[in-house]
Specification:
The complex is a heterodimer of chains A (243) and B (321).
Chain A (H helix, E strand, L loop, with lengths): L1 H19 L1 H22 L5 H16 L4 H10 L1 H6 L5 H30 L5 H49 L10 H8 L2 H13 L6 H26 L4
Helix pairs in contact in A: 1-6, 2-3, 2-6, 3-6, 3-7, 3-9, 4-7, 6-7, 6-10, 7-9, 7-10, 9-10
Chain B lengths: L1 E10 L3 E11 L4 E5 L6 H8 L7 E6 L2 E2 L4 H7 E4 L11 H10 L5 H14 L15 H13 L5 E5 L7 H18 L2 E6 L2 H7 L2 E6 L2 E6 L1 H5 L5 H9 L26 H9 L4 H5 L41
Parallel strand pairs in B: 3-8, 3-9, 6-7, 7-8
Antiparallel strand pairs in B: 1-2, 1-4, 4-5, 9-10
Helix pairs in contact in B: 3-4, 5-6
Classes of the chains: A mainly alpha (243), B alpha/beta (321).
GO molecular function (chain B): ATP binding; ATP hydrolysis activity
Family (chain B): Belongs to the ABC transporter superfamily.
InterPro entries (chain B): AAA+_ATPase, ABC_transporter-like_ATP-bd, ABC_transporter_ATP-binding, P-loop_NTPase
Chain lengths: 243, 321
C-alpha cells in the first residue's frame, strides 16, 4: 500500500511540474508534428496516413520519454533527488512516480498527433487506437525508466549528446517513415534486432483494425518484456548508493 | 541518539575514507562535526543519514539499527544537505507538501504542519514562491523546513551556513538553537566555520584522516590556551581556515589531503582529552559576549545565548576575518 501511495504522490508532484510547463509538452511533440504536417501529405501520395502516424508515435516516444532522463539529471544536480532519497519512500516509488508522469506526457503528445492525423484524413478504428495508446503508455514507462537509468549512469555532460544521437538510428530502424518490409535484407535484419519495430508494426495493425494477429501479439510481448527489463534496470540504478 | 562503533567506509580502489569512527551523541545535544576537507566528514554524515552504506562497524541512529533498518532511521531523522535540494522553478510549498507526504502524512495535516514550521522560521506567506525567487537566507531556512516537516527527533545539517552572509548566518543559528528548545531536537552538524561550532555546538568531534582525533566541549578543546583555530591546527596539522571552501555550495567535496600531520601528534592530542584544568579555564576567556549577542544581528528572537556557562556565543564582529 505504501508503495502505491508513495508512487502516486511522486506521480502527482511530477505531473504538476509537467503541466505547469506546457511548453515542454509542445516542444517534445514538435518534431514529429512537423513531419506530420510537412512530410505527411507527401507520404500520403504513395502510402497512407495509417502507416505514417504510428511511425510518428514511435518517434515521439523516443524523443519524449526517451529523453525523460533530462529531468532526473536536473534533479540530481539541484539536490532534489538526494533529499527524496532520505525520506522513507522506497526508491522504486521515486522512479515509478517519475516514469509514469513521463508516460502521461507521452500519451498527451500521442493524442495530439493522432488528432492532427485524423484532421488530415487518417482512418483508424477507435478501439484499435485505444489499444495502441495502452501500448504507448507501456512503451513510455519503459523508455523513461531506461532514460533515467542512463542519465544517472553517464552523467549530465554526456547524456544530451549520447541520447539525442542514439534515438535517431532507433527511430529509423523501427521503420517509422517507411515500412521495413521494403528494406534490403541486411537493413531488415538490423531492424529486427531493435524492439521498436515490433511495437510499431503492432500499432499499425491495431490502427488498421487487425487485432488478433501474430504481429500484435509480438508487439505486446516485446513491449511488456521491455518495460519489465527497463523498470528493473531503472530501480537497480535508483537503489545504488551514489545515484 | 547516535551511537557508532568502528563505523567505516572504504571505496572501491582501496580508498579508506572513514577508518573506524566512534561517536556517542545524547538526546537534546547540538553536536558539531569538524574536520578539514577530505577528512571523512561528509562520508560519515552520508553514512549516518543512510545515503551511503558503511563497509564496517555498527551504528544506532535515532533508536534504529543503521544497517538492519535504514528506512526506520530515515523515518526518524531530518537531513539538510549542503546544497539544499529544491527545484528552482517549483513553488516551495508544493515541494514541502510532497516531502511531508513521503513521510506518510496526509495532505491536510501536512499543510497544517508546514504552516506551523514556516511560521517558526519566519517564512510565512512565501509558500507559493519558487525557490529561485528567494534570498539565500530564506532558501536556507526553507531547506531547514524540509528537514523538520515530519517532526524528526534528530536533525543532520551539512554545512548549514556555507555561502551565507554573516547576518543570515547568525539568524540561522538563532533558529537552530530555538528549534532545539521548542522541538526537543538533537542536532548533528558539520561545519567549516569554527565560529559556528563555537556558537552552536554543546560538544564537538574533530575528524581527521577518517578517524575521530578529538572530542569535547568547545571550552574543553580550547583549554584556555587559545582559539579553536589553534587547537584545530595542533590536532590536525592544518588550519581550518586555509581549506575553507569558497562560498559556492558543493565546493567542499572531499579533495586530496593537505599537509600530513605526524601521527604521534594526532594520537597525543586525540587520546589525551583536556584534563580538569582545561575544562574550567573557559571562564577565564576575555570578554565573551552575553546572550543576545548573535540574535541582535538578525531577526531571530532570543539570540544564541549560551545555555551553559562554558558554551560560548560569538559576536558578529568575530566572524569572517
Amino acid at each position: 500500500m505504501d508503495v502505491l501511495r508513495d508512487t502516486w504522490t511522486v506521480f502527482l508532484y511530477n505531473t504538476r511540474i509537467v503541466l505547469r510547463q506546457r511548453a515542454g509538452i509542445v516542444f517534445g511533440v514538435l518534431q514529429p508534428m512537423l513531419y506530420l504536417v510537412l512530410f505527411g501529405p507527401l507520404f500520403a501520395t504513395i502510402g497512407s496516413w495509417e502507416t505514417l502516424v504510428p511511425g510518428l508515435l514511435i518517434q515521439v516516444a523516443l524523443l519524449s520519454a526517451g529523453l525523460a532522463g533530462f529531468g532526473v539529471v536536473f534533479d540530481a544536480r539541484s539536490g532534489v533527488l538526494e533529499r527524496l532519497r532520505v525520506t522513507p519512500a522506497r526508491r522504486v516509488c521515486l522512479l515509478l512516480g517519475r516514469v509514469l508522469s513521463s508516460s502521461v506526457t507521452l500519451l498527451i503528445q500521442s493524442v495530439m498527433l493522432m488528432t492532427v492525423g485524423y484532421a488530415f484524413g487518417m482512418r483508424a478504428w477507435i478501439p484499435g487506437v485505444l489499444a495502441a495508446l495502452v501500448l504507448m503508455g507501456l512503451l513510455g514507462v519503459s523508455l523513461a525508466a531506461l532514460s533515467n537509468a542512463v542519465a544517472l549512469n553517464i552523467g549530465p555532460e554526456l547524456f544530451a549528446p549520447v541520447m539525442t544521437t542514439g534515438v535517431v538510428p532507433l527511430i529509423l530502424l523501427s521503420g517509422a517513415f517507411l515500412p521495413m518490409s521494403m528494406a534490403p535484407g541486411w537493413l531488415d535484419a538490423l531492424s529486427r534486432a531493435t524492439p521498436f519495430r515490433y511495437v510499431l508494426e503492432a500499432v499499425r495493425d491495431l490502427f488498421a483494425g487487425r487485432y488478433a494477429t501474430w504481429t500484435v501479439a509480438a508487439g505486446v510481448a516485446v513491449t511488456v518484456l521491455l518495460s519489465a527489463v527497463c523498470v528493473t534496470v531503472g530501480t537497480r540504478v535508483f537503489n545504488r548508493e551514489n545515484a | 541518539m547516535i551511537r557508532t562503533s568502528g563505523l567505516s567506509k572504504s571505496f572501491p580502489g582501496g580508498v579508506n575514507a572513514v577508518r573506524g569512527v566512534d561517536l556517542a551523541v545524547e538526546a537534546g545535544e547540538i553536536v558539531g562535526f569538524l574536520g578539514p576537507n577530505g577528512a571523512g566528514k561528509t562520508t560519515t554524515m552520508r553514512m549516518l543519514t543512510t545515503l551511503l552504506r558503511p563497509t564496517g562497524g555498527v551504528a544506532t541512529v535515532a533508536g534504529r539499527d543503521l544497517l538492519a533498518d535504514p528506512r526506520g532511521v530515515r523515518r526518524r531523522i531530518g537531513y539538510v544537505s549542503q546544497g539544499g535540494g529544491t527545484n528552482p522553478a517549483t513553488p516551495v510549498g508544493d515541494e514541502l507538501e510532497l516531502h511531508a507526504m513521503l513521510y506518510g502524512m496526509r495532505r491536510g495535516p501536512a499543510r497544517e504542519r508546514i504552516g506551523e514550521i514556516l511560521e517558526r522560521l519566519d517564512l510565512s506567506g512565501l509558500e507559493s514562491r519558487p525557490a529561485g525567487a528567494l534570498s539565500g537566507g530564506q532558501r536556507r531556512r526553507f531547506d531547514l523546513a524540509f528537514g523538520l516537516v515530519h517532526g524528526p527527533s534528530l536533525l543532520f545539517l551539512d554545512e548549514p551556513t556555507t555561502g551565507l552572509d554573516p547576518q543570515s548566518r547568525a539568524n540561522l543559528w538563532a533558529h537552530v538553537t530555538r528549534l532545539r528548545e521548542e522541538e526537543g531536537l538533537t542536532v548533528f552538524l558539520t561545519t567549516h566555520y569554527l565560529e559556528e561550532a563555537d556558537a552552536l555546538a554543546d560538544r564537538l568531534f574533530v575528524i581527521d584522516h577518517g578517524a575521530i582525533v578529538a572530542e569535547g566541549t568547545p571550552a574543553e578543546l580550547k583549554g584556555g590556551t587559545g582559539t579553536l583555530d589553534d587547537v584545530f591546527l595542533s590536532i590536525t596539522g592544518r588550519s581550518l581556515r586555509e581549506d575553507r571552501p569558497s562560498a559556492a555550495p558543493g565546493s567542499s567535496r572531499p579533495g586530496p589531503d593537505g599537509v600530513e600531520p605526524s601521527h604521534q601528534e594526532s594520537d597525543g592530542v586525540g587520546s589525551g582529552r583536556p584534563g580538569p584544568g582545561g575544562v574550567g579555564s573557559g571562564d577565564g576567556e576575555p570578554s565573551r559576549p552575553g546572550p543576545g549577542g548573535v540574535g541582535s544581528a538578525g531577526s531571530g528572537p532570543g539570540g544564541v545565548g549560551p545555555a551553559v556557562p562554558e558554551r560560548s556565543a560569538v559576536a558578529p564582529a568575530c566572524e569572517e576575518r
